[in-house]
């Protein structure tokens, strides 16, 4: 059982790493144009907090080092994304990024570590950190619901990239399986949610894949899509 859970966890790490790296083309564009254009830094800041919580969870819970390693990689990647925003964003966006990142990724994360270390015993600490991470994960996994509504209304999947849905489905499924094998319900609930939502997206894709594409696509909507994978890649 231990060997199987390790193998599943390694596969989960690989899939999660691919999802973490999926915004790279968007950031090549940002660097090339020396501008963040209409992209938002908020998804990256939230993903950085999510990765930080799960890394902390993986470090304080025995046997969860695979969770810690992949999210530690996520911390590194998301930090680079946020730094690029600070370099290339206009002044107003740069200040907003500094404030939001400082509050969520420094103050909130620091408070979570400080409080759980000083005021809680080991088991309570693990549960508290896991619940915080799971809650944030469920919120992030739920973000594609708006896209799914758009697919049904327009009867077109042009706003819902297949590979994003497919890898989100795989990511949720493999980590849900890992959670079952190691008997970790806190890890299983958010990833089970992601697995179900990913499956729903694939079903919609199968139903509407031959739908008509509209001639005029909202630029802002397209760019918003490029952020969505961040919401489902964090565990």
What do these coordinates show?
With 235 residues, the protein is mostly helical. Helix 7 (145-154) packs parallel to helix 9. The chain is built from ten helices and no strands. The longest helix has 29 residues, at 91-119. The protein has helices spanning 2-21, 24-33, 42-60, 65-88, 91-119, 122-141, 145-154, 162-182, 185-208, 219-228. The model is unreliable at 214-234 (pLDDT under 50).
Report helical residue fraction: over 70%
Low-confidence stretches: 214-234
How much strand content do the residues show?
under 5%
For the sheet with most strands, the description reads: none
Helices and strands in order:
Layout (H helix, E strand, L loop, with lengths): L1 H20 L2 H10 L8 H19 L4 H24 L2 H29 L2 H20 L3 H10 L7 H21 L2 H24 L10 H10 L7
Helix pairs in contact: 1-4, 1-8, 3-4, 3-5, 3-6, 4-5, 6-9, 7-9, 8-9
Quickly list its features.
235 residues, mainly alpha, 80% helix
Provide a quick synopsis of the model.
By secondary structure, this protein is mainly α.
């Amino acid at each position: 059982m231990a060997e199987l859970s390790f193998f599943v966890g390694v596969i989960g790490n690989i899939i999660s790493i691919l999802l973490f790296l999926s915004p790279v083309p968007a950031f090549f564009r940002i660097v090339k144009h020396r501008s963040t254009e209409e992209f938002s830094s908020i998804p990256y800041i939230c993903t950085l907090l999510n990765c930080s919580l799960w890394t902390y969870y993986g470090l304080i819970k025995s046997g969860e080092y695979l969770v810690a390693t992949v999210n530690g990689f996520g911390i590194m990647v998301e930090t680079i994304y946020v730094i690029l925003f600070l370099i290339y964003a206009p002044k107003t966006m740069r200040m907003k990024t500094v404030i939001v990142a400082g509050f969520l990724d420094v103050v909130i994360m620091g408070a979570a570590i400080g409080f759980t270390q000083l005021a809680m015993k080991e088991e309570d600490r693990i549960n508290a950190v896991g619940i915080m991470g799971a809650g944030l994960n469920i919120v992030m996994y739920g973000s594609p619901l708006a896209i799914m509504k758009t697919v049904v209304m327009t009867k077109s999947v042009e706003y819902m990239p297949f590979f994003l849905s497919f890898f989100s489905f795989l990511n949720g499924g493999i980590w849900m399986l890992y959670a079952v094998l190691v008997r970790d319900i806190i890890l299983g609930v958010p990833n089970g949610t992601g697995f179900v939502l990913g499956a729903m997206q694939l079903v919609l894709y199968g139903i509407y894949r031959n739908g008509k594409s509209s001639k005029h696509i909202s630029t802002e909507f397209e760019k918003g899509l490029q952020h969505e994978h961040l919401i489902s890649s964090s565990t």
